[in-house]
Design brief:
Blueprint: E1 14-15, E2 18-19, H1 24-33, E3 40-44, E4 47-50, H2 51-63, H3 66-71, H4 74-100, H5 107-118, H6 124-133, H7 138-159, H8 168-177, E5 183-184, E6 187-196, H9 203-221, H10 226-233, E7 244-249, H11 255-263, E8 273-275, E9 278-288, E10 291-292, H12 295-325, E11 328-330
């Protein structure tokens, strides 16, 4: 099925909802307090991008990709570091351009962004812990939010309007040339009851879990309400919804679970199915056959996707021009 690109602004990334980008002024202040001389990775019109910022972004990129954690050789790491530095340079160019254009967010906008960010945390204490961990004050965080909003406004007002408009003919052509992407696979709507078995469970615990699921299955076969049994017995989060998992396609569930579900007809109930999570009983409510998604259903998504591609092209052109005009010094070893 077609997945359109969601684009906002290629600017300060958020890790745990706290930006890793730290302005030179903030970092220099920390450095002086620690009597440490901070190394600089790049200068953009006199503004520093610190090596510590780059390295932190690098660590976050590797941590978020298990394959990089095990298979990244030095050449790959070097390439990733260069890409991240280029992204930081481009972020800084956007911020500087926005400031030069006189864009200034309202205090209410900054406060609203901060409130949304804080709402992501379970508690104020955890939010404060993360700030401390990242060596940020709330004032510094608000400064970062302000810069992000400035860069975003610059993109929306100065770059997006320069993007090439997408025609109806281009939208139709994209659909015709990519019809294989516009197919919804077969789906089933199912509920289940799970009796969980921990990975380190001993034989007795496994036997107890098996006995419990067998007793539940007997009740199901006697005609007791499946949803109520799920609410009372299932160890899955779906229990509160009577075990309802909604619609899912092949491959979205674990192999044995998916195979059992797709082999059932609507209204039918499986025998006990074992997966790495434990023992399941599955009830299928509905099936949807594979179908072609019609043009009218996706034309707006296609147009949005193509439009954002054109905005990205406009950004690439802007970055190329901005880099030619800017005073940029890259100080990484090997550059």
């Amino acid at each position: 099925m077609f997945n359109h690109v969601v684009f906002f602004v290629l600017i300060i990334s958020l890790i745990l909802f706290i930006p890793y980008y730290i302005s030179a002024e903030q970092s220099e202040k920390s450095d002086k307090s620690e009597n440490a001389e901070e190394k600089v990775a790049a200068l953009i019109n006199g503004k520093k991008i610190l090596l510590s910022t780059l390295e932190k972004e690098m660590q976050a990129a590797i941590a978020s990709n298990p394959q990089l954690q095990t298979n990244a050789d030095e050449a790959t790491k070097k390439m990733i570091k260069e890409q991240i530095l280029n992204s930081l340079v481009e972020q800084e160019l956007l911020i500087q351009a926005g400031k030069n254009a006189g864009f200034t967010p309202e205090t209410s906008e900054i406060d609203a962004e901060l409130a949304n960010m804080k709402a992501k945390f379970p508690s104020e204490d955890i939010y404060q812990q993360i700030l401390k961990q990242e060596k940020l004050t709330e004032k510094e965080l608000k400064n970062q939010i302000e810069e992000r909003l400035i860069a975003g406004e610059f993109v929306e007002k100065e770059i997006r309007p320069k993007a090439k408009s997408v025609t109806d003919e281009e939208v139709s052509k994209f659909y015709e040339e990519n019809k294989e992407k516009f197919v919804e696979p077969e789906k089933v709507k199912a509920s289940h009851i799970l009796v969980k078995v921990e990975p380190n469970a001993d034989e007795k615990q496994k036997a107890d879990a098996k006995k419990k699921i067998e007793d539940i299955l007997k009740k199901v076969k006697k005609g007791e309400d499946f949803a109520e049994l799920a609410k009372e017995n299932s160890d899955c989060d779906s229990a509160e919804k009577g075990g309802d998992l909604g619609y899912f396609a092949q491959g979205q569930m674990l192999g044995p679970f998916s195979k059992a579900a797709f082999n059932l007809e609507p209204g039918k109930i499986s025998d006990i199915v074992e997966t790495q999570y434990g023992y399941h009983i599955i009830k299928v409510a509905d099936k949807k056959a594979e179908r072609k998604v019609e043009f009218d259903e996706v034309k707006e998504k296609i147009k949005k996707y193509l439009t954002e591609k054109e905005v990205m092209n406009a950004m690439d052109n802007w970055f190329k021009s901005a880099k030619e005009k800017a005073d940029i010094s890259i100080m990484l070893e090997g550059k």
